[in-house]
């Protein structure tokens, strides 16, 4: 079977960090590990400059046909004046919406060599490796009514509505259980069933889904506020955490600070499984943006992008062992003391984007 991969470098350092991934893809092919059918297109400001839109219909068609998309980053001050619908970020939003990428995976990995850069004490985070699975297309960010009304007496009323239906909870729970199977086999589900009806349904549906063939995975439930506390107290107790859009937004930002730098963090956004092929739509991207302040200078840290490739190998291309090799290569170059500017500390060897890419490639 061919592995269809779409590269969308985007803008700024997106282009620079994706260049390092191209070299790794070439190595993977050269070693006969996987063969890819690689396509490429413009997104964000680059697409706007060429076509007047943040992503073309032709690029969307390629995205729909791809087994996985590797996305760099979009945006920059150059496009500040562009109309709302054509702004660079609209390209990413259209991809998420049209491909229905409902599951957002945000790993928090703390490489031992960087443990001192964490917001927590070294012993709490050294070797940390957890993934937060955030529901991305439902919940309070999208439910209606969503409005501010004027009550006429100098008072206003704001309403947001949290809505979840069974199928939305079931499909995200399945993503979490399947992820846990290629990790260490544990899922913690977080909600507020004590005060929210949507939390109660979340708890019931996750529990019922677990019984439909996922009982090899160990499932725990925790109230979301308590989980937030545990995430800072003893984060290594977790493996996969599954939660709704709002709690996932907050908890994944908290988790990211356990690890060090923005330049280290990968992410994945997964869609529904295709009934015929069993494959799911997937977009992999670093958490960081296009970093206009350092763009074009060869200074960007490519590790978040490289770790995003590792996620693609693990979750889209069925090669967790190759992903593990990549993760070990990243850890090894950090152990050797190589640091881009964002993670540099006294005594370490300062390197640029391509030197960091070279070092990972060699390992
Ligand atoms: P940013 O993530 O681009 O940069 C924040 C800071 O972190 C900057 O000082 C930057 O130099 C540094 N940084 C980020 N990634 C780095 C890396 N790999 N290596 C070394 N240093 C790194 O966020 P910012 O500045 O808020 O946004 C810049 C542009 O990126 C904006 O146009 C924003 O809309 C866009 N953006 C795009 C995202 C995406 O494409 N998914 C996500 C976040 C922001
Ligand atoms: Mg956020």
From TrEMBL:
Its cofactor is Mg(2+); Mn(2+). NAD(+) binds at residues 76-89, 289-301. Residues 4-360 form the Isopropylmalate dehydrogenase-like domain. Transmembrane segments: none annotated. Mg(2+) binds at residues 225, 249, 253. The record marks 141, 192 as: Important for catalysis. One of its GO terms (biological process) is L-leucine biosynthetic process. Keywords: Amino-acid biosynthesis, Branched-chain amino acid biosynthesis, Cytoplasm, Leucine biosynthesis, Magnesium, Manganese, Metal-binding, NAD, Oxidoreductase. Gene3D superfamilies: Isopropylmalate Dehydrogenase (3.40.718.10). One of its GO terms (molecular function) is magnesium ion binding. SUPFAM superfamilies: Isocitrate/Isopropylmalate dehydrogenase-like. Catalyzes the oxidation of 3-carboxy-2-hydroxy-4-methylpentanoate (3-isopropylmalate) to 3-carboxy-4-methyl-2-oxopentanoate. The product decarboxylates to 4-methyl-2 oxopentanoate. Belongs to the isocitrate and isopropylmalate dehydrogenases family. LeuB type 1 subfamily. This is 3-isopropylmalate dehydrogenase. It comes from Hansschlegelia plantiphila.
């Amino acid at each position: 079977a061919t592995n269809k991969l779409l590269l969308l470098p985007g803008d700024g350092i997106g282009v620079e960090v994706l260049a390092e991934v191209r070299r790794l893809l070439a190595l993977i092919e050269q070693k006969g590990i996987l063969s890819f059918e690689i396509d490429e297109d413009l997104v964000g400001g680059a697409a706007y400059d060429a076509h007047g839109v943040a992503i073309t219909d032709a690029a969307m068609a390629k995205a729909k046909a791809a087994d996985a998309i590797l996305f760099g980053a979009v945006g920059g001050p150059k496009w500040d004046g562009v109309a709302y619908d054509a702004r660079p970020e609209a390209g990413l939003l259209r991809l998420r919406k049209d491909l229905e990428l409902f599951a957002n995976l945000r790993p928090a990995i703390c490489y031992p060599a960087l443990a001192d850069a964490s917001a927590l004490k070294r012993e709490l985070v050294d070797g940390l490796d957890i993934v937060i699975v955030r529901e991305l297309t439902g919940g309070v960010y999208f439910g209606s009514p969503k409005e501010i009304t004027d009550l006429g007496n100098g008072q206003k009323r704001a309403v947001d509505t949290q809505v979840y239906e069974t199928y939305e909870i079931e499909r995200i729970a399945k993503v979490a259980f399947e992820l846990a199977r290629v990790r260490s086999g544990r899922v913690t589900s977080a909600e507020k069933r004590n005060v929210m009806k949507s939390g109660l349904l979340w708890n019931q549906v996750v529990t019922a889904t677990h019984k439909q063939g996922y009982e090899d995975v160990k499932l725990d439930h925790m109230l979301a506020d308590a989980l937030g506390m545990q995430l800072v107290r003893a984060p290594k107790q977790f493996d996969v955490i599954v939660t709704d859009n709002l709690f996932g937004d907050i908890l994944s930002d908290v988790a990211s600070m356990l690890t060090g730098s923005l330049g280290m963090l990968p992410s994945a956004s997964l869609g529904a499984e295709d009934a015929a092929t069993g494959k799911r739509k997937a977009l992999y991207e670093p958490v960081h943006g296009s970093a206009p302040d350092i763009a074009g200078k060869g200074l960007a840290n490519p590790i978040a992008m490289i770790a995003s490739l590792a996620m693609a190998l693990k979750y889209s291309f069925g090669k967790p062992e190759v992903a593990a090799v990549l993760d070990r290569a990243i850890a090894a170059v950090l152990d050797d003391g190589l640091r881009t500017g964002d993670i540099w500390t006294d005594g370490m060897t300062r390197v640029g984007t391509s030197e960091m890419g070279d070092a990972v490639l060699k390992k």
